[in-house]
Amino acid sequence: GSIKQISITGIIFRPLRNALMSKMHTLLSNLTFPEGPRWHDGMLWFSDFYSHEVITVDEKGTRNTIVSVPEQPSGLGWNTQGDLLIVSMRDQKLLRHSNHRLIEHADLSPYSNYWCNDMVVDKSGGAYIGNFGFDRHAGEKPKPTTLVRVDPNGEASIAAEDLWFPNGAVITPDNSTLIIAETRASRLTAFDILQNGELKNRRVFAETNNMYPDGICLDEEGAIWVADPKNKEVIRIKEGGEITDKLELETRGAYACMLGGNDGKTLFICTNTGSGPDIANQRAGRIETTRVKIAKAGRP
To answer: Prior bond to 300 cis, omega within 30?
Structure first.
């Protein structure tokens, strides 16, 4: 039949084949800039950049500050011992939170061109961490950069080069494929993951003319939800580039998204009115949710 366009509180749904199931809800507000959402232990974990906090929120909206990261937290993950790994952006470090203490797990600065950002952790506790590549706020010209791999023992190396702002990343359930958003190249790029964590066989997973992919997450059909702050939308895209769903936020940018909830079918979206340090004082950041049909898969 024909597809109706439904507008609810400024959010426009354009249901395509997989159709979103419900309207948006604000789970948490008054945040400086939420990023890096992860569903873990029955809660959503995320970094709030400018308050320098790693925060959890449950499905009822109860929030807790887990730890403060002075140089600004971003990507989150867990090692095989269950310790929280945190990307510390401005000093380009990977930290481990263990027994209420922050320990330096790896120094990323020799391998990263600028501030470190998002991360995905594989089943062995190895981490893949992207970086901005250049200082946009200082007016530097965009240039490609590296993806850094940190082994479970804390040893860092370059996993891939020539990436245009490697950002959100996912790993398939069988741990065989890493897919990463290249924000400034309008594409998602896939790699095979070898036994030792090396990346090989680089290829395009999906690309469009104007997608600006930031945070991403994976579902059981192998499709990827992509937060796109520039176009103020979240899309669901399949390998090859078919877009099955589009959630238009109209006035707010979507910076990251994560599937979770007790059935894996709640889509958590980090939204804000803008980005950069000037946004902090507005505390306009929110965690918003909607329900979808296909559950979470893989990592993070």
So the answer is: yes
